[in-house]
């Protein structure tokens, strides 16, 4: 069997950002509309700090307005809610993202519920989750949206395919399953209590792994020719023992890539697969939110 086709999320994301940049330029010149994104980071989590910096840079590169609020880890829930409320009422801001995880003393659900659903570019508010599940226009969570764009680009006709999603979180697994269902896939959602996970995965034409366990999905869990979307971002010790001893790390997915690549028909790498799509879709959602708030038609080429 030939090696799997590598799904180039990094390249696809660069193309999407270019289309977003062109759309932003159009909105500015024809509607005097500049989409604005506010990212809120509470505390010092180093991984989160990198993503937040990338989000700010890529937002500005696309010609959008970008603000980042870095708050101390000791910030109270009330202070955070006040900031969210201020951003809800700021007409220059069309999208609000509060980086997760939040420190333990803050109720994340209370904060997410305080975001104006029209500015909820993460798509985590119950109003957007509900709209997605009943098939109304919604802001769709960025990671599943990005996975879906890659799938539609990879597979000609998704209808009737058996999609298995491993993971049922509100931010990845559940909305991913909703989007696959909307695309007429037959969807199985697996999780930590699923019996015979390997056997169920082996039935998948499309396998989405969003588990958070390094290289859990093995090559013999994958059907010959299946499309594998690896959402996992797991930091593990560097391959070189000396480097590992010095604390160096590398990133791997939830799928054992080396094994999977000789069985699958197509697969996303980690890094360079789903991750870059997540940030590009955040920019896309911000443009979508800005257009809806201004009553301007959505630009073509930046959605599903
Ligand atoms: N590329 C990107 O842009 C993004 C990547 N991620 C990455 O995706 C992964 C998943 O993230 P997220 O959904 O937030 O994680 P969560 O921890 O919220 O959810 C993990 C899910 O996996 C299930 N699970 C855990 N262990 C097993 C197991 N042994 N067998 C089967 N299922 C299992 C859990 O089941 P149960 O519900 O029963 O506990 C749960 O539903 C992480 O690696 C994360 O870093 C996340 C967001 C964006
Ligand atoms: N409110 C909120 N929304 C999120 O969307 C959100 C969040 N909180 N908390 C953390 C997770 C994780 N996440 C990623 C974004 C980009 C990459 C990414 O760009 N990855 C690159 C680089 C990986 C690297 O080298 O670090 C890649 O996979 O190629 C990964 C993961 C968004 N998340
Ligand atoms: Mg990736």
Automatic annotation (TrEMBL):
InterPro entries: Aminoacid_DH-like_N_sf, NAD(P)-bd_dom_sf, THF_DH/CycHdrlase, THF_DH/CycHdrlase_cat_dom, THF_DH/CycHdrlase_CS, THF_DH/CycHdrlase_NAD-bd_dom. One of its GO terms (biological process) is purine nucleotide biosynthetic process. Residues 141-292 form the Tetrahydrofolate dehydrogenase/cyclohydrolase NAD(P)-binding domain. GO terms for molecular function: methenyltetrahydrofolate cyclohydrolase activity; methylenetetrahydrofolate dehydrogenase (NADP+) activity. The keyword NADP applies. Pfam families: THF_DHG_CYH (PF00763), THF_DHG_CYH_C (PF02882). It catalyses: (6R)-5,10-methylene-5,6,7,8-tetrahydrofolate + NADP(+) = (6R)-5,10-methenyltetrahydrofolate + NADPH; (6R)-5,10-methenyltetrahydrofolate + H2O = (6R)-10-formyltetrahydrofolate + H(+). GO terms for cellular component: cytosol. The keyword NADP applies. Its EC number is 1.5.1.5, 3.5.4.9. Keywords: Amino-acid biosynthesis, Histidine biosynthesis, Hydrolase, Methionine biosynthesis, Multifunctional enzyme, NADP, One-carbon metabolism, Oxidoreductase, Purine biosynthesis. Residues 7-122 form the Tetrahydrofolate dehydrogenase/cyclohydrolase catalytic domain. It comes from the Bacteria. Pathway: One-carbon metabolism; tetrahydrofolate interconversion. NADP(+) binds at residues 167-169, 233. Belongs to the tetrahydrofolate dehydrogenase/cyclohydrolase family. Homodimer. HAMAP family: THF_DHG_CYH (MF_01576). Catalyzes the oxidation of 5,10-methylenetetrahydrofolate to 5,10-methenyltetrahydrofolate and then the hydrolysis of 5,10-methenyltetrahydrofolate to 10-formyltetrahydrofolate. This is Bifunctional protein FolD. It comes from Niveispirillum cyanobacteriorum.
